Give the backbone structure.
Amino acid sequence: MTLLLNSIRQFVPLSTKDEAIVNQLFEPYQLESGSFFLQAGDVCQYVGFIAQGLLRYYVLDDGNEHTYDFSPEQTFTCNYESFLTQTPSTRYIQALEPTILLRIRYDNLQKLYETLEHGQQFGRLVAEQLFVVMLQKLTSFYRETADERYDNFLRLFPNLTERVPQYVVASYVGIKPQSLSRIRAQRAGKYY
Amino acid sequence: MTLLLNSIRQFVPLSTKDEAIVNQLFEPYQLESGSFFLQAGDVCQYVGFIAQGLLRYYVLDDGNEHTYDFSPEQTFTCNYESFLTQTPSTRYIQALEPTILLRIRYDNLQKLYETLEHGQQFGRLVAEQLFVVMLQKLTSFYRETADERYDNFLRLFPNLTERVPQYVVASYVGIKPQSLSRIRAQRAGKYY
């Protein structure tokens, strides 16, 4: 809970009264490795704060998984589009490790915005940040080459290379696992 | 100014005091047909509300214009990414007709958020709406075929077919003007 309060404080100040509201509106939740925070077809009802563990985001395209993002500890998780519009998700959010979250339901988040002293400002700043981040990620997803996307993975998630299975890294880069091995071998060659 | 106040009221209520603040922080601005609200390389300093006229949004890719959006009367205009991050724009916003706007500068919008009774909530709701709209438009921009994008143009901008030059419609669909004429001819054939 302290980690969550600190994360909110990166956007707005919180009073003792605000802290009590956050405590009351978020609830603990656990995911086993491989299980889902959200599946395609379901409406995203929760925003989660990851206390421990790791999630990945993917879409299914003709039966192929395209991983497009990861959320490690001390970040928030949500399919924000499905959540805001309360319409079924086209994406999956899956735990890659046993994951411990604090989550808040849609109606309780509205209550949070209304009752925290700077609740609406917090919501605005989060929405603005997500707008910018999502735009960059989506543009990267559609426009960049496999080499550029592998560079992105190493740059954006430097601590995840040991934690993410190779076939998931390959699905993030948009290539087959064998092709990823080839890119890695080529790069290793450069430095020896 | 009444149109602007009504547009804000679609998100939050405004008191008489709020109205005076809006009046004070927005300023009138005019664009001739063909001139720019924003050019690539410049930082987007303003959000504009279009009282009369029409704007289009495009990127240059290897010298080719790709139009990806339009803003007619009674809508807001901004390169929200450049505006939020206060970094140079990669996009152009150009008037297709003589256009009359009310615009607000970055620092004055922050003041608006802080001083309107529901200012922060207004900012949150706008950011959330823009997030959803942008996600849908960007996905359409990258994933859909020329036929689908022409359908989108007709569906999203039913009143603009007479107002937008053909080469701009073609650059929205992502094809040459001659190919657009062919699509139109084929469709006309279907109905006779």
